[in-house]
Amino acid sequence: MAQDWMGLMKKVPWKTVAEAAPAIADAARRLGKRIDAVREGAEAGPKADPPTPPASAAPQAAEAATPGPSDEHRQALLEAQGAIVALQARVDGLQSRQAELAANLEQATRLVAELGEQNGRMAQAQEAIARRLGQAVSVAWGGVVVALVAAAVAVVAVLQ
How many angstroms separate the CA atoms of 129 and 124, rounded? Predict the structure, then answer.
């Protein structure tokens, strides 16, 4: 399992990742700002709902406006009021769902920005590790060369 991860990590183009990380983080920040601007615009807009008359007041107003409305007219008025109440409930539900989705989107945007920054830091750390490993390999090869030279000198000294 660890070998799979190591193999996968070796295949990642870390230089490209490191170069792209700041752009990803900036794009996530810009997206967050756009979401905030849209949310502020939506909150600043008119939200005042027209007052709805109580259900009992509407039939009385209809009776006063028309002389002797028929039962069919009253039934249609009651159905219309029921539809208005149902639509208002649906609008309220949709508004609350929209607010929930906006909050989720804001949270996801922050997460993307944070992951982009972490990705950049990880790529920089990987590059530093690669440099240190290169230096360690160079030092090790130097040690091998010194050991071989010392062994050769010892052999030459013994043969003389």
Answer: 9
Rounded distance, CA 75 to CA 83, Å?
Answer: 12
Say how many residues make up the chain.
Answer: 160
The H-or-E segment that residue 96 falls in is helix 71-159
Q: Which class for 39: exposed (0-12), middle (13-18), buried (19 or more C-beta within 10 A)?
A: middle
DSSP letter for 12, please: S
- The sign of the CA dihedral 69, 74, 80, 85 is positive
**Residue found under tokens 């989107």:** 105
Average pLDDT score, the chain: 79
Maximum Cα interatomic distance, the chain, rounded to a whole number of Å: 136
- Using one digit for the tens of pLDDT, what is the confidence trace for 10-52? 777 777 777 777 777 777 778 778 877 777 776 665 555 555 5
Is the four-CA dihedral 111, 116, 121, 122 of positive or negative sign? positive
| Cα distance between residue 60 and residue 83, in whole Å | 18
